[in-house]
Structures
1.
Amino acid sequence: MTKEKVPNRQTLTTWRKLLDESHKLGVRASQLRLVVIKCLSLFSLIIGFYFFSHIAHNWVVNKAHGANTHIIGMALSLFCSWLLQGLYNQQSIVSKTNMLSKLETALTAVFSARQHALVRQQTTFYWQSLWQKQSHDLTDWALEYSVQQTIAVIVPLFALAVIFFVNPVIGAGLLVTLPVVPLFMIIVGKGAAALHQKHFIALSRLGSMFTDRLAALPMLSTFQAHERQTGLLKEASDTLNSRTMKVVSVAFLSNSVLDFFATLSVALVAVFIGFTLLNELNVGPDITLQQGLWILLVVPLLLSEMKKLGQIYHQKAQAESAMETLAPVLVSYSPSVEAKGYEDKGYTEANTEASTEESTGSAQARGSQTEVATTSSAPVENGNGFLANEFAVFDEVADPVQDSPSLLTAQTLAFNQGDCILLSGRSGSGKTLLLEALAGQRRATHRCECSSIWLTQHPVILPGNVRENLCLHDEYCDQQLIAILEKVELSDWLKQLPFGLDTVMTDYPLLSGGEAQRLSLARALLRDRPLWLLDEPTAHLPDDQHCRLAQLIYQLTRDKTVIWASHKALPADWFTGFWHIENKHVIDKTELGHQRPSGEEQQLT
Amino acid sequence: MSNESKPAYITLLLAMLHAAAGLSILVISSWFIAISAIAPVGFNYVIPAVVIRGLALLRIASGYASMWVGHKDLLARIATVRMDVFSQLQNCQLEDKASSTEALAQHTEVLASKWIAWVSPLSSVLFIFTVMCIAALWTNLPGAVYLVALYSAWIILLTFQWLSALATARENTYATKEFRRASSHFLAASPIWHLNRKKAAEHAPSAMPVWRQQLNQKKKTLHTMWMFQGVAFALALLLMAGLLPFSEIAVFAPIALIVPMVLLAAPDWASASFNAVANAAQHQQSNNALNCLSTSPIQQLAEKPVCTSLQLNHFAAKNRTTVPVTVSLPSTGVVTISGVSGCGKSSLLQAIAGLLPAEGERSVDDHAISEGMVKRWLYVEQDPIILSGSVKMNLDPAGSDIAQDTMCELLEELSLDSILPLTNWVGKSGRQLSGGERKRLALGRAVLANPLVLMVDEPFEGLDIKTQERVCKLLEKEAQSKLVIVASHVLPTSLSIDKHIMLEEASIKSVNQHKRQFA
């Protein structure tokens, strides 16, 4: 039988702790506060019941109004209970808002640090649901389910103590039967889990069928397959339903066990008290009406909080799936990395690895990798160069608890200010990885800390106008913008635009691939940064365009340090160094003479 | 319809029974204890004791039954709603992508859960509350007025909650849409975040407005519950203190305890109704969303074999900045379209297949054909969709009884034998396919459907040379009997090409030129 990767409660709590420590979410404190408030509210309610039972006793037995002290006591304790409940509601919302905004800050900080290297790994939809939905699921679990879990343990104990105090016989009876409830629930839960396990594959396959076929609508109509698939869908949902009912029938028993004990305990306690009052039963001490009523009112509290827990049980399952995706992203990164600053100049002996390790408190630190980090080269103090020995790039969103293999290694990597290095390798060999590591967007032993510029294969055109596309959040005067557009040979294009710099770029902007790349080149040129990382900026252009644009880039970046990944032909005399990636290893081929390594230009991506 | 709703009504009935039994136990128990304390002569204690135990069993049984029936009904409803939506979408295209299919699945769930999410909890509380008030007034129960007062407060609070819940649900939908839009733009710009003076975190959109609306909904529910609790406690207190002048508590009989007990327990037994109101608002929202589902129909045209030629005259996909093409394609052979990425190869292919609205003219054997998807003109996407299902299902989605041997042979030709046997489950929660495998599986699917015209978008991307050659061979074989159009920015040397179209790069210049030319 295959073992499904379902995290248990232990790991969910462990993750929560990890997140709490690395991002200072303050969840633990909020949880404690909520538990205390809610318990206090329920305690005052129990005290309120005490006064109520006194007044009732006076009514029925003494045929008189309640004593003033009792009435005031009841008023005060009910009022307290009510106020505390209001405070609980308010605190619950406030701490949720806090946690959400902290999670969002943490997530956007990860975005800031890892940037495109992280974002490009998943679809936009993935990030959106991680951001909006899963953070919310996690918060619900941490500040609702977890809190209720603690309350469901404390309140019954307190209620039991009260009952014991009033009447030890009833208390003992309940004490004996109460542990049976969780026991039964565990047995039933295990049974349901086993059934779920048995149907797991079928349930997950059939369950996702509807969305799967919805996504395939156009394909289904081209193949005239809609009717057939409708039939299949119907069949699938019938099977799914009958299988789900099998699992659910058992799972509901758990709920019924609770209901059974909750209802029966009230009923039996009532009968017992009644019979004792009637002197039909003579077990234990005598009971007054006041005591009897108080017990009757307190007994439901034994299990009502547990029932409420059952009602929000889905939060746990949702949090588990949220943790699976959210935790690796957040835990693999901690604020201390960012504290090092993004704009630092010069060399760093980047031991981000070690600091991540420490701050996340991961006990299972990867000894070998930490070693690598500490043995990295001593910094060389001249300009914006780079030197790295025993260089390694690690998997970004790997489970931090497990050992993540390095994605790319190098014996020695070095360049000086003003160097121009050609990076070659088959597509998929890791050229982009290396550039990302150098820019500090990926976890690696070293990174170049001088500020850099990236050009990717696919130029980004923002939905705003041309000016916004160039300026982003900086300010440049129109002359500067026009001058830069002239430099990248876009003057003609600019003249054709109906509103010049104010022309808004639509979903399908009036730009050819080459023009779009020039626009992004202009955007980069506006920002004077020493290091240029070029990730095949001409890959998608036809040969003549590629030559013209490459020439342009070469001329415009002559005074910069450039690392240029390309598998299209570029003149060798442009470059001062040649790196080649093969089998996850970067080889410095500069010494071998200025010939281009061969055999890599077979494929385009 | 009535047969379908039967389980729903049974659920409702059982839920009412469950709630009523629970409250009755409390009421009868307290009365029983009270009367036992003063033990009148000839008091028959056996009957109430039996009734209490009977009610307990009734409550347990009805609780389980209502859950069971309710869930079964829910599942059946989900199936029905989804089948309805799915049938409604025949030959349609959803305007949005991933987010909308997920949202659609969720909306159908909300719609189907109508009964257990709000109808039955709300009506069972309404039922017991109403019955209790009427019974209390009828029997002139001491404190009945307080019960009626609580009832009125409940109605008022629920009404207010309903109104604001509706508004919040609406705002939530709006905020979600806004966040999706803003975050899409934000995430798409990730390659240039580093150029920004501000860190990504500083100009990132926030999901806070969405969360705020969601929390708001919760807050309003909690608040209403809290107000209700306050009213119930206050009334209980007033009643017990005997403060209000019209209090009829002169009677001091055991029966007088019933109303205060009900008042004190009110926050428990009435709480389900407040959650139900929030769910009802969500239901309303999902209902609206499903009603105004944005789809675009795909016009279906009858089969059109190409006997001599397929001509395109100033033909291009509509609303795209691509240069229109004028070309005549042969009835058989391999035609390749190449050009820079983004020049509109894919949209041209889709326009020819009729999957995208087009401008210009498309004619077969000199007869112009109207807009729409021509049957058996198959288009294989660049990133094809693989159904979550068996390999066989993916090769024959229409269930047209293609021989298994034919399928296996074809898979071998495409060097896809690694995904055999045909019963293998691929896609979601099955064997994950690589990009190249998906392309070839989709190509196999198209070939098996025996198309009249076969259009393939970037078939060679991500394939090694040997596999590329195999794909070329297959395309050439198909091209002997039909027109095969291949759009690709790499063309393997081994592919024998009958006609090559080089797409001009669309830019503002070329588009303007064309506009001038054909104005």
2.
Amino acid sequence: MLDSKIPKEGALGKKWEDYKGHCKLVNPANKRNMEIIIVGTGLAGASAAASLGELGYKVKAFCFQDSPRRAHSIAAQGGINAAKNYQNDGDSVFRLFYDTVKGGDYRAREANVHRLAEVSGNIIDQCVAQGVPFAREYGGLLSNRSFGGTQVQRTFYAAGQTGQQLLLGAYSALERQIALGNVTMYSRHEMLEIVTIDGKARGIIARDLITGKLERHFGHAVLLCSGGYGNVFYLSTNAMGSNVTAAWKATRKGAFFGNPCFTQIHPTCIPVSGDHQSKLTLMSESLRNDGRIWVPKKQNDNRKPSDIPEEERDYYLERRYPAFGNLVPRDVASRAAKERCDAGYGVGSSKQAVYLDFAFNMDRYGRIEASKRQISNATPEQIRQLGKEVVAEKYGNLFDMYAKITGENPYEVPMRIYPAVHYTMGGLWVDYELMTSITGLYALGEANFSDHGANRLGASALMQGLADGYFVIPYTMGNYLADDIRTKEIPTDHPAFVEAEKNVQADIDKLMNIKGTKSVDHFHKALGKIMWDKCGMARNEKGLKEAITEIQQLRAEFWKDVRVPGTANEFNPELEKAGRVADFLELGELMCVDALNRRESCGGHFREESQTDEGEAKRDDDNFSYVAAWEYKGPSQFELHKEPLVFEECKPTQRSYK
Amino acid sequence: MEHYNMNLTLKVWRQKNTDAQGKFETYPVSGISSEMSFLEMFDVLNERLINEGKEPIAFDHDCREGICGACSMHINGRAHGPWAGTTTCQLHMRAFKDGDTVTVEPWRAGAFPVVKDLTVDRGAFDRIIEAGGYISVNTGNAQDANCLPINKDDADAAFAAAACIGCGACVAACKNSSAMLFLSAKVSQLSLLPQGQPERKSRALNMVAQMDKELFGSCTNTGACEAECPKEISLTNIARLNREFISAGFTYEK
């Protein structure tokens, strides 16, 4: 039933080349008659829309924001990986592939990951050609930095704003195609249903968020590039509008959802400051290049960090993982922080934080600068000042952001950080061609499950979004549409469109007519608390079972008592939120069901029942070396399909970063 | 940092839709923590309005970390409020003290019609980019990235210009509602880089023509845009755009 469509022929490293050599093509004249719908305009969506538009397809792109430039990819900070080996430090396509599979704790599909590593270099070339201003060295060539889970420097970056620069590159390519008439852009539109005809995805129902009017759009194929679902936790580093609605509507329509419980808790975020908190802010992983993480060696130590002498500090990552130190993967770093705080070593007023300290490296940089400038007898103050300037150039925007949010100066005192929900490795199940289990429906970028296994390495999300959009879908799309060239545009008065619109309208009417007593946010916060407490950094059978019952109760209460003000035929942000939270209330349950089913720990999924003597995640390859693809069968009813994972090149072992 | 709570009086622009007449409404808010962000204070107010059976205030926001450019409030007469180099979402309530009256309006510019309350339509910015804010390179055409060394100073200057988030504060701050800072940031980024050279002249001419078509005003070098820009985009970009535009006007043949 679940056919991953990995090319059968050839060694792993030859599969993609072989696929490209043999996939079907659509001739330019026929491309002009083929329509493609793209939902979401982040890195995956914008790059796909631009590339498919360039090829000559008729593309319609949709985003809920007021402009495609605001998609949440814009907030990615640290960088993008590519196996260029510009540093001559031993990098290669194989090593990037291997690091990604290992970092994902052997729960990703090898063939997809290998393809990702193969095209990674092309992404950097493409972005530079578009005018993306990556950081450069004085010789004029590109600069790299380190990220977690690797021992080479392969991360390209633009200060702490890499996602912004990459997205604006893809956005400008998209705008160019809009100007040329190859792409029609629908901003402030939200997709609310997939339309299927004879088992194939043939269009969508979208709501114009300004007028509230429902629209029917036909497409020979539909691409979902709608991002991840971290906001199911309410508090996350995602943007306020990030949601699962497009992916969830597809799930309800028959697309399988892959590994929903695989969520990434990022170790370095600004801690929660109070009940008013609406979102959490990431401090880029790249800071772990130059920051050292520590807590006091004494429990409940209330001294100021500057008053705690060196020998009374516990650099616990360096202590536990000498080989990777502060650059262990995110899941490992997050659990280690939680372990220290739970054991009473946390800092700050909440005691739910650890220090990320730059003093050591600021002085190191200062000494290098002093040496470069041939200042032989620099004072410690001078050295610190020179070091500060170097750090400001690398991470200035992040330090400013920290200062604005906390009111503290991170150049002077160590940052306080704590793990927070950041990314979702799970997503719509897709085959090698990125097609979901609905024919003609594709999922790209964070919206699919395919490349990161149970834990994503830093700087790999941007790589995957752009790989899917620029270099994968242009080939696999042709292979599908080549057989569809005789299909004429289907008029949107077809009964399938009429029926789909009727259902969407009924859902909206239902939400508007509850006229209950509690706001949408009330339910969203309640859901987030259940998810964080029972399906967050650590999970166990008892908690997950409780969570499932609690979510079911909360969902019932939502449909009885939610209050959506205003009307449906106007700009109504509360109505948009209500629809999204309704979908989160269903997805949250499935995440717990999946987490309960997977009685092993792997990557970001930590089942307390399955750990090594040292408290590390313990996989159970005999029983769980598969992708869990869930089929929606009705409210609270999900059927599990398994895609076995076969490893030809990477032999699964207990991950070690010691 | 000392935390404190405050009571404030908010005067907020309410407007049902683009065609409706708008007006200020006054809302007292109490128990606001100095640790909250400005938008979290609006969340608290909206939650109260919903519980009272009233319509919450519509405002654009998304990433809440100062990078998506969605948030757009004119606070006490200043785009994005009192802190320099800060978007509305990163403005924190430490900026205010107990008893303050805070006036909040949408961006005011003919080219940015109000959609509802504090939300405006900034589609004109997208159309300016469509007119030439890109390098015409199809996917797959690129050479190896390091085949094109770029002087670090130029790369850094291009990056500084590319940091624009397209929020529109420059337009809102300008007495002429000019979009010159926004436009010049993109023209600067691309004209500073070797990749941008082939289309350098047509880009400057076409983008300026589109800006005029969108009914943004002219630039009179007042500098309010630079003063209020949350990303501190420099006024020198406008000088560069003027050079690009004038020299293109004399030398571009088509």
3.
Amino acid sequence: MKLMTALLGAAAAVAMTPMAMAADGERGRDGEVKIIYWQAPSILNTYLSGGTKDSEAASLVIEPLARYDTEGVLVPYLVDEVPTVANGGVSEDLTQITWKITPGLVWSDGTAFTSADAKFTYEYCTHPEGGCAYATKYEGVKSVETPDDLTVVVTFDKPTPNPYGPFVGSEAPILQAAQFADCIGPKAPECTEENFNPIGTGPFTVTEFKPNDVITFAANENYREAGKPAFAKVTFKGGGDATAAGRAVMETGEFDYAWNLQLAPDVIAKMEEGGKGTPVAGFGPLVERIMLNNTNPDPALGPDERSVIKPHPFLGDPAVYKAMSLAIDRPLLVEVGYGQAGKVTCNWVPVPANYASTTFTCDTQDIAGANKMLDDAGIVDTDGDGVREKDGVPLKVLYQTSTNAVRQDFQALIKQWWSEIGIEAELRNIDASVFFGGDPGSPDTFQKFYADVEMYANTFNGTDPQSYLGNGLCDKAPSPATQWQGENVSRFCMEEFDAIHAELANTADIAKRGELAAKLNDLMIENGGMIPLVHRGRLSAHANSLGGVALNVWDSELWNIADWYRISN
Amino acid sequence: MLTYTIRRLILSVPTLLFISLVIYLLLELAPGDPMAQVPLTVPPEVKEKMREALGVGQPWYIAFPKWLYQFFVVEPMYLIDAIFGTTMTEGEQRVISWQTRSPVMDIVVQRLPQTLWVVGVAYVVAIAIALPIGIYSAYRQYSWFDNAGTFVTMVGFSVPPFFSGVVVIVVFSVWLGWFPSIYDTTHEVDDWDSFVKQLKQMVMPVMVLALQITSQLSRFMRASMLDNLNQDYVRTARAKGLGEKTVVMVHVLRNSLIPVVTVIAIGIPSIFGGAIITEQVFKVNGIGQLLITAIQANDLPMVQTLTFIFAVLIVLFNLIADILYGILDPRIRYD
Amino acid sequence: MTEPLSMDAVEPTAPPKSQWADVWAQFKAHRGAMIASALLAVIVAAVLIGPWLWGIDPTKLDIRAKDMRPIFTVLWDGDAKVGWNHPLGTDNLGRDLLARLLSGGQISLAVGMAAMVLSVVLGTLIGVLAGYFKFLDGILMRLTDLFLALPLLPLLLVAVLLFRDRLSATFGPEGGTFILIVTLVGVTSWMQTARIVRGDVLALKEREFILAARSIGTSPAKMITRHLLPNVMSPIMVSATLGIATAIITESALSFLGFGFPPDFPTWGKLLFDSVDRMELYPERVIWPGLMISLTVLSVNYVGDGLRDALDPRIRGR
């Protein structure tokens, strides 16, 4: 923890210096800034949001006590310093964290910001009938106490090595108690006025919200920093597609900032030639991977046994999944699909460095090696149709993913490589709203996994992968008994894995935690849970005349909009 | 005709109720999950709680009557409240969208202006262009004008808006910089300059939409005119010594309008329904975009309400078309 | 609708002519229809025989040869990456565009034609029945209203959920997908034809010649096939022509939703959609599939025009 504190302080100091430019002059001097998100925000209350788009739009208005910066380091926002064991803010037994709110803070309506608001937010999100989307942020919290107006004491029910869940990050902002007092529990969804126009402490206030279309914000006159924000008005347009958003920023210059441009690198490069804007990339822990089904997805099995019963007829053989991984040319995948927004990875947890494993290398394709591996394991083509058989079962896989241009290119490439090692792939793509939807009635959801392999991307919030690594626990496997819900999509199950994860949950030492996390990562890869492909970054674009943009993948992308300014030429 | 109209209007009530039930069951049966866009980092237990809070997964015999009550009783009462300042709907639940947790009708009302502006204008433009083209093409069949018209309308119909929309954006926004590629729904027309700005942002979506509608309408107009131009009554009219203009524009046109009226009657409800792809391409964010995002997000109350309003318009305009047939050709009788 | 008395019939030296010979003679005289038929035949032949002649697998990736331009680009850009092995260029994964166009055409044409036929037959049937028989009018038109009102996307999702696995079990994955797509497109696009045909039939059945036919005791079936159908051919032809374009585009939309053919299977609609993002860099990738769809629709349109003229005895007699 000591090391982390030192890092925190240093990073915070560095992060604060280059922002001087935005503070020159009076608030609102640069007029209007226009942002486009190709997914339109539906609501401005983060806790009732249906996706990242909502919490990012809301982050202009409502703020957490502390949030992560571009490096994934915590920076204080509504407090003076981030509590740690070293500065006494976190108790020695790791069960309590005490936040000291910066004195003199006010809401945009001019009333005082107090610890009661934090306590209210906790009650709001943990109400059993409220349907709070980020309830996990408050998981394990025993109580939130407010000894005085500026002190928030969070007590956990057990030692919590990472106590920065509640009130930290763009997914756990503070709501104003006075505004939301009548909106708690079952009444939460009915408070349209409040959910569309939350009062916040952030740099902007909502002027008009048109759900799923456009939001206009105005500078918050009561914002705590003088001279910020530089813009008087924000127009936040939603809808359309990533191509159109990129074009509006980089080619026509109609907008200043476009979010999450998941486009092929040559398309981005062409847009950049437009000369009006620049793409920027940042890397969080997002990994595009192929999940291997550890159960048998044979349609001949009944609905209660398909993708439930183990083992898979051939995917459980190390020779098979290792050969499949070896046959993939990852650098080419990066080049074709992501360009500057992608890196080769062999790991489930690629960052932060403390938790990332360094065991594997996988940046060279080796078709010959893969073929040899299969030959040596006795999995050969016995009937001369070009497809190998294992114990009489031909190596034919159904390879599914969501509909997305880059994913379909990946499917085509990987299908070709696998065919070169005698594995035949049938491709299927499914509309994202069905694939990622948890409808137990649909055969096409990624949890149900009625296929042999499937490709998608997943990530975790914040900088601690403990709960993300929990996705490999035996009891998290989706099955008919759980209405096909559960994060362990590959149905991976290993006693050793479960034991190490339990150990991780009870370890506080940062170095030791990193070691255990890396071991879990290796177990998953080594034993056929998944084949990681690409460590994906977030690619957004900003107008060349927009200054102060620092792409943040650990928090809201718009985390530092107060520091944005217009570059005068 | 009047009794027929009244009978049809009365009959349309059970029809619409049945249609709304079918739509409801269809939506209920369709796979999908309102939580599909929630990040994967949110665990399934939390998603389940969120679903419960929304009332997802109630059996249809509870949820459907609830929707009927909200739509047919609470919403009209709310409208009365809003107009006369009464408070009948105090404490009553309106139809609430799962995505935005706000009343569906409020959003519909918010979206109507841009849809009517863009899709409505496109329709008017298309009718104004298509009818003369169709009439003249038929009158001068296989002339160069007819052949050019055929070529343009066929290519126009074969090229889907996801392509033609991007072509006009690249040409007029990126290369020439004449028109904005993104429609500003917050724009208000209050003087000449803002009217010009509104026209500018409407030009491209209207162009793309009108091309499609024109192609379709002019083909039907032409075909129908051709059929009638060869009829005996035309020869009789000419033999009587009627002017060519009167023969074509009064006798033939009137008899050729039945298919065109049919196509327009099917098309007008779609003005309200919006043009899904065109609205998406130009970010008009009207009713069409509302419907498609609601379908993608599995927002059942929203989809149900929108499609039901759409169904009402379809039933209504098909009735109007039937009445118009009787006016255009008095020999048509329904009783 | 009586045949005009032909002078040939009384002239003993002339060989007797069947009705179909007359139709063919009239069709031949229609220049547009002849050119269009030839063009359509070329397109059909190309997509049927072409893949076999050209011999390159449309799904074969050759990443070193990616982003090649069509051979004629050399004319104005000497540095362009071209080659005779890929005369129309390749896509961003190095798949041969010519091979993709040819094999994509098979599916697009088959789906377009089959779905069009289904939708026109359904529409005409329902339209004629509703227009002619008063007791069927109410129920059939309310059914039409219902189908017009149903939201397409959820309907497709439900159909796939219910029928995909069963169909692919019976007809194999590709046959099942084909049947599913054709049925879906056909079943969701017959309503306009039905309404138009009904409107025309309503007007027609009050005309004098129908009354005359009825007075001599013509059966309803004869009435429909001999007197009503020939007189509603024009709008049906227009619906058919427009229907092909709709079906080809709808097929591509279905595959994005995940229930068309597998994603690496090319079709014209999908080729067009996939290339829109790179339209400025590689215009040929959108022009070719767009052109193929337009040409098909145009030629079907002219063939339809010719057929309609040829089948109309009033014109034929002139």
